[in-house]
Structures are given as structure tokens and as C-alpha cells.
Amino acid sequence: MKIGTQTIKLENKPRIISTSNIVGKKEMDGPLGSYFDAYTEDEFFGEKTFEKAESKLIETCLDNLIKKAKLGNEDIDYIFGGDLLNQCIANAFSIKNFNIPYLGLYGACSTFVESSILASLFVNAGYADKTVSVSSSHFCTAERQFRLPLEHGNQKSPTAQCTVTASGSMLFCNNADTNNKNPCVTYVTPGKIVDMGIKDMTNMGAAMAGAAIDTIITHLKDTKRSADYYDAILTGDLGVLGSEILIDLCQKQGFDLSKVHFDAGKMIYDIEAQDAHCGGSGCGCVASVFTSYFFNKLKAHEMNKILVVATGALMSTTSSMQGDSIPGIAHAIAVSYTHLRAHETSQDLV
User: Fold this and answer.
1) Residue 298's closest CA among 333, 258, 249, 254?
2) Is this structure's pTM higher than 0.70?
């Protein structure tokens, strides 16, 4: 049921019954290393090219996801997913091995939440019993496609972000657990394209901040909630600069996010020690951070309500070379744990 201007209330509250993630060595060496399911020290993942390595990341992530849920490939109705590469080849060349219907998506770094929105809506509407969302990114494939060959060794701008090598996935099911032991999706807010006029492709945080602001404020207005209703509002991936812009401009519009805002791009690296400039980015960044650190917080009852807002820069190498600005998009999904704390009522999940 649509409420407000853009938000959809999921009355059947699809449950997230399994998550999986895998990261590269740099991500494993970061502050969240102990939360990830698996990692690889080999940037080629035993393959001959970086692109095949990214496909192997996805394949491993999905295998782990299905095994953790104690299911088989035949139990999954649909997979929704995407990556940063042309024609989403990282997903296509891995998911072809699963023999599961696949809907490929491109939302740049917003792809994980975009795919999660559609996967949960399919379950909520009764079109499927079990669906999967997945996304990935790889530092080497992104650098080669969007910037310069790695061999060039060019110096990065201080506003640049480091593409995360990672894949993350979630498995949704309706009424998967009669004891309500799994977090559920309560609302989704698909975003609108917002163009801040930024043309610098090394300043993704500034380019995407406007879309994040628009989607977050729209979600809060549509649901008639304040920011502190949530234990966390997780963005991915605005990085250091984009997060500062988000907090400042939301504050000027009367929404104080300062106490509840987290950004996956800021969290995944020790930014100074690991020379990550403005932090992490990429389809795998928010996917791996939410399915590890934040999902564990939900399962441990340390957090109860999280709004995940993934941002994407909808540019290409062609549009950048032609001097176009960088449009941004942000999609939001509200995830709640239905085991309520003592001071809460069932109304808190409505």
C-alpha cells in the first residue's frame, strides 16, 4: 500500500531469513573485519581476469547464502541483482550457474537496496515465496572501467573514494519463521533522480548527497517519523564529504540525523591508516556492511529499527567525457526486528 508521496508499506512484512557477504583483503583488514562471513586475499580469486574474479565473489556469496538458509537452488523463485560493470556482466556470468530466474538491475551504488526493494515487494505481494537480492563491486574492475588502468598509478583526489571489493546478499521469505525470529521489511521508499550539478567524477559523495537527502526526508514525512525513530540511518556510500553535506543540509530542513547517521563508506575502512581518502564506495560496500555488522546488531537485539539508504551516481564513462553532470539516486528500505524491547508496543512497527 502506497503512503505519502513515494513510500510503500509492506503489510505482510517479508522476513530476511539469511544474509551472506564476502570481501577482499583490504576490507577484511578494516574496522569491520570480524563481522564479515568470508574474505579472499587473492584479488583474482583464482581466476584469469578481475571481471571473472568479481563473478566468483558473487557466486561464492550466493552459495553461502543458500547454504546458511539450509535450502537448495530450486527453493529460490527469483534473484534480483546488479553490479557496476557494463551490462552487469559480473552478475550474469555468475548467476547463470544457479538455474534461477534472474532480473538484472543497474542503480550504480544504490543497486543493493534497489534489488532488495523489488525482492521484498515480490514476496509481500505473493508473487514469490523466496527471493534473493545481491550486488557486488571490485576495486580493480571499477578502476579499469571508470577511471584509468591500474598500471597508470595516477594520484587520487582527496575527495575520491575507494571502490570496495565485496559482495553482499539477502534472502527474503514471507512467514518464514512463526516465532518471529527474523528481521522484516516494513516500508520501502524508491527514490527520485536528483542532479546537484556536480561534474567531478572523483567527488561522488557530493554528487549523491542531494538524492540521499531527498529520499530520507521524503521517507520520514511519508511515515510521519522523526529521524530518532530509527536506531540507525545507514547510507551507502556518501563517504566523509557526502556525509557532512547530508547532516548539514538535513539539519537546515529541520531533520537532525547527527545521532543516528552511519555511512558504510566511512565505516568499512580505517580511512587514514588505509589511505582510503574519503572512504569506500561501490555496489558491494553497503551490501557487505549491512549484511554483516548491522544485521548482526539486529539479530543480537542491539538495534531494532534501521533505515538503509543506498545512493548511486548515474553516470557513465561516456557521459563524463561529454561533460555532463552526475545525477544521483537513493533508495530506502526500513528493516525492523519484531521482538520488541520492554518500552515498545506493536505500534512501533506499523
Assistant:
1) 333
2) yes
